[in-house]
Amino acid sequence: MWRWTQILVAGGALGSFYALVALGFSLIFGVTHAFNLAYGEFILLSGYLAYFLWKSWGLPFYGTIPVCLVVMPGAALLLHLFLRRVRSPFEINSLVATFGLALVLQNLMLALFSADYRLIQPEAFPFLHLPATGLTITDKQFGLLTFSLAATLLVHLLLRHTFLGKALRATIQEREAAELAGINVNRMGWLAFAFGGLLIGLAGPMYGQTMYIYPAGGVEATLIAITITIFAGVGRTRSLLLGGWLVGLAEAAAAMWLGGSWKELVSALLLITLLVVRPSGLAGRDGNHKP
Amino acid sequence: MLEQAPPVCLELHRVSMSFGGQPVLKDINLVVREGEIVGLIGPNGAGKTMLFNLIAGVYHASQGSIRYRGQETTRWPPHRLCHAGLARTFQVPRPFPEMTALENVLLGLMFGKIDGPAADAAKEQAGELLALVGLDHKTDTPAGKLTLSEQRRLEVARALATRPHLLLLDEIAAGLSPQAVGQVARLVKKLHRQGINLMIIDHFLNLTLKVCHRLVALDEGEIIMAGEPGQVIRHPEVVAAYLGTRE
Amino acid sequence: MEIANPGCRSAKSWPRVNSGRLQLSFRRSGLLQIILVLFVIMFAGSVGAGGKEVIRLGEINPLTGHLAQHGQEIHQGVVYAVEEVNAQGGIQGRPVKLCSRDDQSRPEIALNQAQELIFREKIAGLVGGYVDSLVAPVSELAARYQVPYVASASLQQALTRQRRNPYFFRVSRLDGIVEPLSRFIDEKLKARRVAILHIATPGSTEFAASLRDNLSKVGIAVPLLEKCRAGSRDFSTFLLKVKQAGVDILVSGGFYPDNLILVRQWREMRLPLKALVAPWGVAYQSFISTLGRASEGLLGMCAWNPGITWPGTEAASCRFVQGFRQRFGQEPNTTTMHGYTSARALLLALAQLASRAEPLTGPALSQALRKLEVVLPMEHLKFDEYGDPLYYRQVVVQIQQGRMVVVYPPERAKGWLPTAPSLAE
Q1: How confident is the model at residue A276 (pLDDT cuts 50, 70, 90)?
Q2: What is the share, in percent, of chain C residues with pLDDT greater than 90?
Q3: Disulfide check for C227: which of A244, A261, B23, C264 has CB 3.0–4.6 Å away?
Q4: How far is residue B151's CA from residue B143's CA, in Å, rounded to a whole number?
Q5: Do A260 and C228 contact (CB within 8 A), yes or no?
Q6: Does A178 touch chain B (CB under 8 A)?
Q7: Is residue C280 situated within a structural domain?
Q8: Domain membership of residue C243 as a residue range
Q9: Is B79 on the interface with A (CB under 8 A)?
Q10: Is residue A290 predicted with pLDDT exceeding 50?
Q11: Is the residue at A127 inside a domain?
C-alpha cells in the first residue's frame, strides 16, 4: 500500500508541475494562437534568474519567486510585441519565428551561463517521513505540489469566476464572436501573455529546484507543455491538471513496473490512445466544438 | 411640405472587397436610415454575409468607406463598433460553447459597452434577455449543448445584451417552420419598436417579406435592386439571380 | 604640374594606346589581379606566419545540446594541448591549426562535421567525442577515409573488438573502469547485493552488463539492474525498488546531471545503503560544490583530477593545472584531461613523423600512434593492437570534507573512512 502511496506522491507532484508548465502555454496559445516553441527557453530564463539570485545574491529559494513573478511577465510581453509583427498565417509563422527565437535563446544562455548544469537548493530534508512504512514526501515534492496546485487553482478561479476570466475563455472558444460581443481581443492577448509570464515566472524556479537547468533543457519543457495541452485542450484548467497527473502517474507507474526507460514510451502511448478514443482531448466535447 | 428623411444610421459609399485578387463585393452604395428594417436578399454566394462582415468590422473594405452614426468606421475593429452600438448574429451560430447560456449573455452585457452594469444587475438583465428569446429554462445549460435553434436565439440574446442601436441578423429564420418564423417576426418588430434598427439577411424571403421596410438584392457582389419589398422580389433581375439565369 | 583628376595618376604614366585596347588591358590585368588574390586567400590558411605549412587537426565535440557541459570540457583540454604545442614552436616549426566543430550532441551532425573536416579542411587527424553514440559514426568514417581518430571518451567494446579499425584509437577503456570497481566493491565494500542503474547509451549499458558479470563471478548478487534515459527527472520510483531489493550498494552508471538528482533523492528518502558509487559525474569539484553536504561520503571514479595523477607525473600535472587555470580561469577536471590526453597523443605521433621528415598521411600517422608510448598525467599511454589504451585505469575516490580522496587501489590510496556518518543515516 505504501508503495502505491509513494508512487502517487511522486507522480502527483511531478504531474502537478507538468500542469503548471502547460498552463501558461495553453493560455497563450488559446487566446492568441501563438505557437510558442521558445516556451521552454523562457522557463529556463526564469530558472536561471532564480538560480543566480539564490547562488550569487544569497536570496532564500522562496524569495526568488516574487522576483521572477515580476520579471518574467515583462519578458513575455516583449515576446508578444515581437510576435505581433508576425504575419498571416499566424499559427505557422509564429511556430517558425519562435523556433528561431528558441535557438537564439539557447545560444545566448550558453554564452552567458556556460553549459554547466545548475541545480537550486540541493540541501535535502524530508517534509514527511514515516520510517515504519518508508513513505517519504520531500520538501521539494511538497513545494512543487503546493505551488503548482495553488497556481492552477488561482488561474481556474480567474477564468471561471471573474468577468475578465470569462472574457479570456470567450476569446479562446470563439475569438470572432468574442470581439463582436465587445471584447477587445488584442487586450486579451496582452493579458494572456502577462498571465503566461506569471506562470513562467513560477515554473522557472520550480524547474531549477526539481530538475537541473542547462541551456539545451528548454526543449523538454516545451514538449511537456505541448503534450499536456494536446491531452487536455486549450485553456481548460481542470483538464490540464488531470492530464498532468495522468502523465506523471503513468511515468511513475511505468518506472515502477516496467523500468525507467519505459516512462516516456508509456506516456506517448497514453497520449495516442487518448487521441484515438477522444480526439477532442481529455474533457473534450463532440467534433463541432472549437477550443 | 416635403417630409424630411430620417437621419442616416449606416452609409456604405462605393465599398468594394476582394479576397486573393477575386472581387467579392463591388462598388456597394447603401444607406440605412433610423427606424428602418432593411432586408438583404440574394442567392448563395451573393456577398450578403461578407457585407455584414464588413459592416461589423470583421474584415475591412479594400475600397470605399463606411459611416455609422456619422462616424467614419471603415477601419474600426469589431469591439469598438460593438461599443458604438452595432451588433450582429451569425449564419451558423457561434456561442461560447463551454459557457452557460447565462454566461454568454452576461459577457455581452459586461463588455458590450464601455460602462457595463454591476454584476448583480447584469445577472438579472441577462435572465430577462434569455426569457425574451424563450431560453429562461436553459440558463445553466452549456451553450454547446443547446439545439441549433436555441443557439440562434441565444446569439440574439447575446447581441441584444450589448445594447445595440443597429442589429445585423444573419439568416435568423433559416430552417424554421412557418410558426417559428412568425415568432421571430414578432420579436423583430418588438425590437424595432424599442428603437433598434435592423438589417436582416434572409435567403428564402420568408421573414423579410413580413417585417422589412426595404429590401436590397445582391448578386455576385453587386446590388442589383433596392426598394420596396414587393417590387424588389418581382424584379426580373432579382428573379433571374435566384434562378441562376442572370447574365 | 596640375593634375586633372586629383587622386588619379598623371596622364603621363598611362600607356599611349587607344581606348579600346586600354579597356581590354585593364580587364585582363584586373582579372589577373583577382585570380592572384583568390589564390592567396585559398592558400594563405595553409601557410603559417613563418611560411611553414600548417598542420590541421580536426576536433568534434558536443559544444551545444544536452552533453555540452562535458563536450566543452573536452574541447578545452584539446585547445590547451594544441596551444601548448604551438607555444613551443609547433611541430618541427609547423603551426598546428585546430578546426573545431560542434556535433550538437547529435550523431548525424557528428557525421556531417566529420565529413566536412576530412574533405574540406583536409585534416591530418581527428580528436574528441563524448559518448559512443557520437563517437561510433565518426570512427566508421575515419576507417573509410583513413584519417586517424583518437576518441577522448569512448568505452563501447565493439568499436575496437568487433571489427578491427586501424584508424580508431581511444584514451579510455571500459575494463579500466569495471575491473577496479568490481574489485573495490568486493574487497573493500564487501558487498553481497548490488543494484546497478545505467543510462541508455552504448557505453553505460555495456558498463552495467560487464560489471554485473564481474560481480557475479565473485558471488555478488545483482538483483536489480535498471536502465533509464539520460536526463531523467525523477528517480524516486527507482529508489523505491532499490529499497525493496534490499541491496548494500547502489552503482549509478548515470551521468553528472542524473547523479545530481539521484543523490539528492536518495538523501531525501533516507535509504539505508552502505555506499553509492558512480563512475561518472561524481568525481568533479563542481558536483561537490553543487551538492554540498549531500555529497559527503559518496564514491566516484576518475582517471585524473588536480592532485590525483599517474604516479611520477606530479610535476607535469601541476604545470597543466596552473597553465589551464591561467588560460581558462577555471579548474580542469577528469573530462578535460581526457581531451588533453587524446590531443597530446595525436600531436606526439605527428611530431614523431615530422621529426623523421615523413609525410603526414593517414596510414603513417596510424602507424605512429600504434608505436606511441608516453607517460602523461592521466595514464601511461600505449595503444594495443585494437587501439585501446593498455594501461588506462581509473581510481576510486571518496568525497571527504569537500575533497576527493583516493581510496582504491591500495597502491594509490590516500585515505579511507570505514563508514561516512551521512551514509549511515
Answers
A1: confident
A2: 77
A3: A261
A4: 7
A5: yes
A6: yes
A7: yes
A8: 176-302+395-412
A9: yes
A10: no
A11: no
Domain of C228, CATH number, reads: 3.40.50.2300
For residue A285, pLDDT over 60 is answered with: no
Find, in chain B, the residue whose alpha carbon is nearest to that of A179: B79
**Has residue C105 got a pLDDT over 70?**
yes
The mean pLDDT of C139-146, rounded to a whole number, is 95
- Pair (C191, C241) in one structural domain: yes
For chain A, say whether B52 makes contact (Cβ under 8 Å): no
Which positions 221-240 of A are in contact with C (Cβ < 8 Å)?
A: none
Report the pLDDT value the prediction gives residue C17, as an integer from 0 to 100: 42
B174 against B17, higher pLDDT = B17
Is residue A251 one of the residues assigned to a domain? yes
C264 and C185, same structural domain?
yes
Q: Which residue has the cell 513496473?
A: A257
Same domain, C254 and C220: yes
pLDDT tens-digit series, residues B85-125: 999 999 899 999 999 999 999 999 999 988 878 888 899 99
Which residue in the set B58, B97, B112 is minimally distant from A181, CB to CB? B112
What's the grid cell of residue B171? Answer: 439568416
Q: Identify whether A203 is part of a domain.
A: yes
Substitution target in A180, A183, A186, A237 with the highest count of B β-carbons within 10 Å is A180
Q: Is residue C21 part of a domain?
A: no
Q: How many domains does chain A have?
A: 1
C42 three-state secondary structure: helix
CATH number for the domain that contains residue A243: 1.10.3470
A142 touches chain C (CB under 8 A): no
Closest residue in chain C to residue A134, using alpha carbons only? C269
User: Is some CB atom of chain C closer than 8 A to the CB atom of A107?
Assistant: yes
pLDDT at C1 (0 to 100): 34
Distance between CA C111 and CA C103 in Å, rounded? Answer: 8
Residue A14 contacts C, CB cutoff 8 Å: yes
Write the pLDDT tens digit of every residue in A121-143.
766 566 777 767 667 788 888 88
pLDDT score for A124: 59
- Which three cell numbers, joined as nine digits, stand for B153? 436565439
Q: Total domain count for chain C?
A: 2
Residue C152 lies in a domain: yes
Same domain membership, residue C319 and residue C295? no
CA distances from C339 to B31, B223, C332, C346 (A): 81, 80, 11, 11
**B77/A182 touch (CB, cutoff 8 Å), yes or no:** no
Q: Which of A7-11, A231-235, B227-231, C216-220 has the highest average model confidence (pLDDT)?
A: C216-220
Closest in B58, B112, B119 to A176, CB measured: B58
A63 touches chain C (CB under 8 A): no
- Residue A89, preceding peptide bond in cis (omega within 30° of 0): yes
Residue C206 sits in the same domain as residue C242: yes
Q: How far is CA C299 from the centre of its chain?
A: 22
C226/C366 same-domain check: no
Contact between C235 and A260 using a beta-carbon 8 Å cutoff: yes
Query: Do the Cβ atoms of C261 and A211 come within 8 Å?
Result: yes
DSSP type of residue A216: G
The answer to whether residue A122 sits within a structural domain is no
Chain A hits for C72, Cβ within 8 Å = 114-115
CA of A19, closest CA in chain B: separation in Å?
A: 20
List Cα–Cα distances, A22 to A43, A203, A245, in angstroms. 11, 10, 12
Give partners of C (≥3 CB pairs < 8 A).
A
- Whether residues C108 and C207 fall in one domain: no
Nearest CA in chain A to C241: A256
**What distances in angstroms separate CA C256 from CA A85, A112, C138, C281, one per listed residue?**
41, 21, 24, 4
Neighbours of chain A (3+ CB pairs under 8 A): B, C
Output the pLDDT for position C421: 42
**Chain C residues with beta carbon closer than 8 angstroms to that of A124:** 264-265, 267-268, 294
Using CB atoms, which residue from C69, C265, C293 is nearest to A123?
A: C293
Strands (E), chain B: 8-19, 22-33, 37-41, 63-68, 71-72, 86-88, 166-170, 197-201, 214-219, 222-227
Rounded to an integer, the average pLDDT of C336-345 is: 98
Tell me the residue range of the domain where A224 lies: 2-117+136-287
